[in-house]
């Protein structure tokens, strides 16, 4: 039932485990019982007079710009080229509007509830964080969809000139909408962290603007060259290549991998993460804020590892290069995960434990639950396993194609070093968290440690004046830096046998050092965490006993006369 | 045995290095209106935030209708209605839309509940007005309407009448009494003692994070009076009960060094519900030998012309007179049992005896007197 829409309650069918039945119920619920937060936000937005003004101004400005560009360009250039240029200009502008406006709009949603002091009332209604987040998400997405819809007529202007097909335009708008989804999810996750809308908007824009520019340059302009290499029909250089590639690229495994699976993974994994982070930020400190994030990690890590394997099939003869890209991505993902997990509590709260007991939670569920050691263990095992898988696949590809021995050495050296350093990262994050009261300090120290580890050896060399000589001592000093494996790749191929041997030896020693240090830190963190959790549990048990004793003492006088009268 | 509507046991909380709550324990029975009093910074709002599941207690137990707020916050939220101090509202929607939204959020079973709540809170004339256009008093009323939508058993109101004009205050007070008639338990925090004394059946006074007194107002007044009397009859120093602010405080352990429950804090704590020391007597005996329950005892302040000591024999031993205390400047304190007719009889009797009565004053508001007596008034 929805009071806001005036719809009466619908008769719900009996519970069913079939997915189709549950989907049917959910659709019915969506129609008859829409998200209350979304409904309320829409009512409020409808009364906001500035919305149509802003929409009209943005549309007008972009239309004028497009007409000006089209008018000027069509004087000296053939229409088809003008149409293509307008297509790129329009969707570049639309990209900026969506990736800047959508996060900013979403950033104010949850934070404004806190700053407007309506958050507590909302929380106490019993609405789950997921319902509130979905309502806020839908509200912001509706708003940004209005922008996209308003831009549709302007986006159709390139048709007047030719050079682009309807499929190109439809695909571009679909991708724009997908970007809007991701941008709104990003803004919402920032919003859930802050109590002031102004701060949330500023932080969101500070992150969103450079990230979108980087994505535009790397994913747009940069990847267009790679796409051109794979499909010559796709132009190299223009930024909006992806929607055009759908109608121009040859259908096959590459098409499905890079134009269907990769964009979906690129949206789904971050989108899912942002959703889970939003929910975790909205939940109480004693709630289970870990399990859902851990599930995301458990699914994303293998998915990410698997998504780096198909290029091994295409990059014949340069498998090691594909491996380096894949393992680097995985290592960055591991560092990011360690950063996220550094905010874990030391162990599950009393509330979480009681709820586990009530529903008879199994070992797997408990392992995915709150606890920094659980997080560090899962993080280490999965990322190291993923790297081993990447390395193994690369070695297999090299062996099957009879690749060079140097390539295999590169794969082993790079993957081994990355695995050891990743273990250190998880160990350091867990150890710091085990010794801190909150997650803030470990995160700051983790950034500091990574910077020191990466730049420290090079700074030491610069101070010693041996940075430029590239000699044996330089190699030895540089070996603890996580940048060293990249240096190692060149040395393996180009160095003289002695230098190569030394470089490999230095790399192995440094990797072993990081590995042992990481394992030691993990062990230290585990010991301390166990002690703290044990003490906490003992203290709770004592309190329980005392409260029970107190209750028994209070009940005793009341029970005594009743007992006496029964004897009489 | 009936489960108390609210049960707070040995509650501790700390912000930074400051213990904002120290071993706070009290109970609120079903259907009571409990006034929670304390100076700014005493820890009232922290207690309320813990009770309403918005803050996790560092130690101790809080139960609402028998449900532990730390374990089952979702279940607690279904049975409480919390109106915070200076709560915000969604401004660009109408009063009805606002209530409809919360009705959906609370998942109320029928659409008609919104109409019922609008009628109960007398918001009918305002239902199509934008919330932004409402006065402070009307917004408070709307807030109250919001927390009634899901028909909660326990209402927790933090300073509901702050910043309201007298009319709005009276309206809120009447509404609270009406809600009590409907069987709601109301937990009310306020600075305005006269307002609380009009509606509360029991109170708790919090000072510097410690509960200095809790219980029914009449009972607390009697305890204090008994102590005063014990002191007045000249008990030996060691026999005199300590001042209320010490004697009523629950035993306090050393502050927790680290967040988390400290079992040592409970060592020697009084059993739940026993927050008063053993009292010397529950009745007082009149000159005629009749036992008068302390609950029936009242005080009257008279001002007469001349020396009041000469008037004492005229009243002492009279029907309903429990005690007469002369004071300087013609002041005369009379403890009595009875109603207003007793006051009229005393005045008539004195005038007939040739005593010039220049003033008759009921004793200071009882709640104010208790508050002043049990708190120290230090800066918090």
What's the short version?
Chain A has 568 residues and is mainly α. Chain A is 80% helix and 0% strand. Chain A contains 21 helices and no strands.
Walk me through the structure.
The complex is a heterodimer of chains A (568) and B (380). Chain A is mostly helical. Chain A folds into 3 domains: 1-33, no CATH class; 37-249, no CATH class; 292-554, no CATH class. Chain A is built from 21 helices and no strands. Chain A has helices at 19-32, 36-46, 50-76, 79-115, 119-123, 129-155, 166-191, 197-230, 241-248, 253-282, 291-307, 310-314, 319-341, 350-359, 363-367, 372-400, 405-434, 440-464, 472-478, 484-494, 497-567. In chain A, helix 3 packs parallel to helix 6 (129-155), helix 6 runs antiparallel to helix 7 and helix 11 packs parallel to helix 16. In chain A, 38% of the residues are buried. In chain B, helix 8 packs across helix 12 (366-374). The radius of gyration of chain B is 24 Å and the shape is globular. Chain B is built from 12 helices and 16 strands. Chain B has helices at residues 44-51, 73-79, 95-105, 112-120, 136-148, 166-181, 193-199, 217-232, 244-247, 312-315, 340-352, 366-374; strands spanning 6-15, 18-28, 33-37, 59-64, 67-68, 80-83, 154-158, 185-189, 202-207, 210-216, 283-285, 291-293, 297-304, 321-326, 331-337, 357-362. With 380 residues, chain B is of the alpha/beta class. In chain B, the strands form 4 sheets. A 6-stranded mixed beta sheet of chain B has the order 6-7-8-3-9-10, sandwiched between helices. Chain B has a 4-stranded antiparallel beta sheet with strand order 2-1-4-5, with helices on one face. At the A-B interface, helix 2, helix 5, helix 14 and helix 21 of A face helix 2 and helix 3 of B.
């Amino acid at each position: 039932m929805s009071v806001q829409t005036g719809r009466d309650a619908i008769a719900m069918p009996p519970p069913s485990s079939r997915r189709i039945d549950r989907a049917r119920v959910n659709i019915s619920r969506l129609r008859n019982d829409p998200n209350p937060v979304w409904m309320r936000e829409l009512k409020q937005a409808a009364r906001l007079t500035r919305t149509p003004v802003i929409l009209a101004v943005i549309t007008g400005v972009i239309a004028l710009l497009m007409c000006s560009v089209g008018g000027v360009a069509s004087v000296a250039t053939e229409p088809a080229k003008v149409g293509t240029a307008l297509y790129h200009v329009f969707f570049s502008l639309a990209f900026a509007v969506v990736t800047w406006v959508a996060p900013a709009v979403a950033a104010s949603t949850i934070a404004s509830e806190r700053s407007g002091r309506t958050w507590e009332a909302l929380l106490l209604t019993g609405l789950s964080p997921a319902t509130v987040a979905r309502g806020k998400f839908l509200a912001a997405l509706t708003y940004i969809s209005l922008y996209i819809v308003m831009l549709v007529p302007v986006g159709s202007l390139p048709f007047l000139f030719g050079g682009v097909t309807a499929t190109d335009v439809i695909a571009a708008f679909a991708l724009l909408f997908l970007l809007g989804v991701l941008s709104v999810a990003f803004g919402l996750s920032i919003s859930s962290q802050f109590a002031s809308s102004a701060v949330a908007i500023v932080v969101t824009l500070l992150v969103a603007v450079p990230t979108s520019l980087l994505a535009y340059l790397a994913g747009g302009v940069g990847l267009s060259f790679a796409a051109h290499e794979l499909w010559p029909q796709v132009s190299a250089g223009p930024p909006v290549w992806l929607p055009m590639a759908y109608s121009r690229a040859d259908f096959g495994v590459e098409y499905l991998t890079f134009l269907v699976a990769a964009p979906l993974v690129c949206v789904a994994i971050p989108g899912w993460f942002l959703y889970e982070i939003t929910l975790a930020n909205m939940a109480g400190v004693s709630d289970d804020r870990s399990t859902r994030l851990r599930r995301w990690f458990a699914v994303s890590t293998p998915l990410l590892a698997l998504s780096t394997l198909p290029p091994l099939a295409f990059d014949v003869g340069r498998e090691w290069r594909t491996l380096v890209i894949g393992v680097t991505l995985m290592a960055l993902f591991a560092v990011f995960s360690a950063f996220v997990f550094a905010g874990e509590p030391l162990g599950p709260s009393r509330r979480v434990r009681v709820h586990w007991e009530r529903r008879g939670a199994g070992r797997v569920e408990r392992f995915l639950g709150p606890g920094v050691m659980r997080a560090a263990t899962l993080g280490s095992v999965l990322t190291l396993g993923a790297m081993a898988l990447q390395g193994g696949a690369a070695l297999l590809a090299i062996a099957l194609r009879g690749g060079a021995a140097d390539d295999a050495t590169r794969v082993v050296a790079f993957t081994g070093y990355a695995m050891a350093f990743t273990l250190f990262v998880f160990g350091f994050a867990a150890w710091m968290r085990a010794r801190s009261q909150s997650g803030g300090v470990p995160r700051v120290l983790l950034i500091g440690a990574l910077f020191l580890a990466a730049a420290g050896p090079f700074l030491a060399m610069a101070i010693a004046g041996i940075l430029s000589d590239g000699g044996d001592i330089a190699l030895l000093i540089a070996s603890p830096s996580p940048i060293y494996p990249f240096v190692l790749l060149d040395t393996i191929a180009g160095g003289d046998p002695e230098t190569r041997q030394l470089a490999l030896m230095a790399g192995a020693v440094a990797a072993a050092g990081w590995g042992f240090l990481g394992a030691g830190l993990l062990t230290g963190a585990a010991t301390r965490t166990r002690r703290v959790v044990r003490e906490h549990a003992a203290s709770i048990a004592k309190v329980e006993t005392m409260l029970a004793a107190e209750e028994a003492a209070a009940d005793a006088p009341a029970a005594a006369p009743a007992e006496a009268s029964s004897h009489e | 045995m009936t489960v108390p509507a609210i049960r707070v046991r040995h509650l501790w909380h700390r912000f930074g290095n400051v213990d904002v709550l120290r071993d706070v324990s009290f109970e609120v029975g079903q259907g009571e209106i409990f006034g929670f009093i304390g100076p700014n910074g005493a820890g009232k709002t922290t207690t309320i935030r813990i009770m309403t599941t918005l803050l996790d207690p560092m130690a101790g137990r809080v139960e609402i209708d028998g449900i532990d707020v730390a374990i089952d916050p979702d279940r607690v939220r279904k049975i409480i209605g919390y109106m915070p101090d200076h709560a915000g509202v969604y401004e660009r929607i109408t009063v009805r839309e606002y209530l409809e939204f919360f009705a959906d959020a609370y998942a109320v079973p029928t659409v008609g509940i919104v109409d019922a709540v609008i009628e109960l809170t007398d918001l009918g004339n305002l239902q199509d007005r934008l919330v932004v256009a409402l006065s402070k008093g009307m917004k408070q009323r709307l807030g109250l309407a919001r927390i009634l939508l899901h028909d909660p058993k326990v209402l927790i109101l933090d300073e509901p009448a702050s910043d309201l004009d007298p009319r709005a205050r009276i309206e809120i007070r009447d509404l609270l009494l009406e809600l009590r008639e409907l069987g709601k338990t109301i937990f009310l925090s306020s600075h305005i003692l006269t307002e609380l004394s009009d509606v509360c059946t029991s109170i708790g006074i919090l000072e510097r994070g410690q509960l200095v007194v809790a219980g029914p107002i009449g009972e607390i007044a009697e305890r204090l009076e008994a102590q005063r009397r014990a002191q007045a009859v000249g008990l030996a120093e060691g026999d005199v009960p300590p001042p209320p602010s010490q004697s009523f405080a629950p035993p306090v352990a050393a502050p927790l060094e680290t967040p988390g429950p400290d079992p040592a804090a409970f060592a020697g704590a009084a059993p739940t519900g026993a927050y008063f020391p053993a009292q010397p007597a529950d009745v007082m005996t009149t000159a005629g030998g009749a036992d008068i329950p302390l609950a029936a005892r009242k005080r009257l302040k008279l001002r007469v012309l001349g020396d009041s000591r000469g008037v004492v024999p005229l009243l002492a031993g009279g029907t309903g007179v429990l005690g007469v205390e002369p004071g300087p400047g013609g002041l005369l304190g009379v403890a009595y049992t009875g109603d207003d007719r007793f006051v009229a009889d005393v005045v008539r009797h004195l005038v007939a005896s040739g005593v010039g009565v220049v003033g008759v004053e009921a004793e200071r508001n009882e709640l104010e007197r208790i508050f002043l007596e049990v708190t120290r008034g230090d800066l918090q």
